[in-house]
Design a protein that fits this description.
Shape: elongated
Strand content: under 5%
Radius of gyration: 21 Å
Distance between the termini: 49 Å
Order of helices and strands: HHEEHHHHHHHHHH
Strand order of the largest sheet: 1-2
Amino acid sequence: MGTKWSDRIADLERGVREGDRTSMAHLGHLLQDGVQNKKGRAVVRRNLKKGFGLLRRAAHLGETQAVFPLACAYHVGLGTSPSRADAMRWYRRSWRDGNCSAANNIATIYRDEKNRRLAFQWWTRAQSRGDGNAAVDVGYCYQYGIGTRRNRSLARRMFKHAISADYVSEWRREEAMYHLAVVYLDAGSASRATQLLARASADGDFTEATSLLAEIRSQSPLTTCRCRRGIDKGLPGHAFCLQHPRSIRGPA
């Protein structure tokens, strides 16, 4: 494997010397991430500064494959100083090229800046192109009126779309099941909620779903968590949650 990677890197470096923008993009991306073999040994060592430089050159030459990783580099400061303006500029360029992940990242920037309305708008744009992960975000916004008017009917529609979507992570699919179950619980339909929670907790890695399902089945008082799954509860964009009152201060 080491020899193969050496050959590949050599080919990409040759392409860079010849001015090939696709080689610049591929090599830049590899250097940003690095590559490890099955034993955890680095076969391509990270070089953030060099990787950033190659991505920037490729993007300015019009290579679409370099645009999104360049935006991410500016966003979090990989090989360069973080720059919101540059990140947004290249994310928008990537969105125009058809990258739904760019819209999600733009929405995240607006969410962190507490601009709920624009965050919702950008998640909606990603969802409109079939992004099931974004559909979970849009559904959550409709569920609790974050950046838009509260609309439980549209929340249900978005969560159902995410559950059946082709382009959605299993993590987010389960989250859609959970929040749809909460919508049903709030409407007094425990039977529908139970079915969804059973599916969401089937692989044992969704603590909130498992806990809520157990409370319903035992007819215990419900302590429903209304937070986003796996997202820092102190971040903006959460609904108020009685389980986490110190971290969440109303729809933020």
